[in-house]
Amino acid sequence: MKKIPKPALERLFLYYRLLLSAHNNGEKIISSVEMGKRLDLDPAQIRKDLTYCGEFGKPRIGYRVEGLMNELQTVLGLGERKQAVLVGVGRLGMAIYSYSGFAKFGLEIIGLFDSDPTKVGLNLGGQTIMNIAQLGEFIRQKRVPLGIITAPAASAQQVADIMVDAGICAIWNFAPVTLKVPENISIRNEDLAIGLATLSWNLINSGCPYIQPTEDELD
Amino acid sequence: MKKIPKPALERLFLYYRLLLSAHNNGEKIISSVEMGKRLDLDPAQIRKDLTYCGEFGKPRIGYRVEGLMNELQTVLGLGERKQAVLVGVGRLGMAIYSYSGFAKFGLEIIGLFDSDPTKVGLNLGGQTIMNIAQLGEFIRQKRVPLGIITAPAASAQQVADIMVDAGICAIWNFAPVTLKVPENISIRNEDLAIGLATLSWNLINSGCPYIQPTEDELD
DNA sequence: TAGATTGTTAATCGATTAACAATC
DNA sequence: TAGATTGTTAATCGATTAACAATC
Questions:
Q1: What confidence category does residue A131 fall into, taking pLDDT thresholds of 50, 70 and 90?
Q2: Shortest Cα–Cα distance, A59 to chain B (Å)
Q3: In whole angstroms, what is the distance from residue B38 CA to residue A153 CA?
Q4: What's residue B145's pLDDT?
Q5: Considering the domain B6-76 in this protein, what is its CATH number?
Q6: Residues of chain A contacting residue B92, judged by C-beta atoms under 8 Å apart
Q7: Residue A15, CB, less than 7 Å from strand D?
Q8: Residue in B106, B198, B214 closest to A80 by CB
């Protein structure tokens, strides 16, 4: 398995989603130039990225939409079932749990957990929220490879420790905190506040007329 | 205003949040080594990043927690009020709207919009959900600098067009689609499915014992 | 002082972009 | 064929890491 640079890996998924949409739209062939237009990316970069997943393009023609789509699905493992537990059934947790878009890529949330006794026992979309005390045992027994943390920052590390101890392989972390995990565990931080912070910086440095300069703004 | 590379800008926010926590914890001084330990980053990188926001460290001593925190707050504009509209009051939209963590960094969502007539008129946390037809006028009148899109992919571009036309300066996009906007508009895509896809790839390429060939999983 | 830590310069690393021969 | 598009190599760009003099 050829190593794929992280930025390229993320783009591969964008290509996959684009191809899925093109396929549903009845398109048979697509060129790197056309993909670049739709995704606002350099066609050369797209071609380069696609070399990480085998060769499919034909000079003068372009890429077969369905073939490339299937190849990407295989490479990214999007066709595999990925069972997961979700810990922290707040609004964000519920949003992720109920979002059908992830199921298309193989995500199956098979266990909901919370530490709040008023939530434990509630039924949500056919699943009963369990006490966090049962988390480790559940992961071990069901051999759950993926953990989703939508718990508050204060308890996120504790949750991660339980998951790791129970043998989980990957963590999707939405808590705004840097988790300490062994390096064989793969972790993805969706730190939404970072996005807000970068937009904040852009706003005050872009001369937006709708932002009222406090006193220090003049360049 | 010195230009700040994007990855450095994102880390600056991590430093800010760390300092906020250290400050609340009563810490007065912190070194780049200590920050590196807590954030799992190279101390040299931290020192380098911090040069983008003025000089604060003292050799042999470290950084003054409060001073550096305040400086970062100013640089990132986190103390400024950032008024925003949110379009698409589904579960994710509600999660973002009701998350108090963003308010700490200056976010103020002052308008909720949806195209679903059964939602328009409902009251949510003191605000009435408005019809998307009023979006442009609202932005113009209130001079709203920031738009948050939590609408479905299919309508996201249309929403963005209205926002841009009304003079919005920045867009925080949660819809899984590449939006076309003029290049003077700053945009941040929080494409959560990318995270899932990278974890998916990691799972199938890391030899996770809890991941089995698909046929074993059928039941 | 002696030692720890900064800010900065230089070296390394990795990713993007450009160029173009090969190809259909 | 002529022309468009690929895959790949080389050049460029930018970010990270290493090294170390300056400093308190």
A1: very high
A2: 27
A3: 14
A4: 98
A5: 1.10.10.10
A6: 92, 95, 99
A7: no
A8: B214
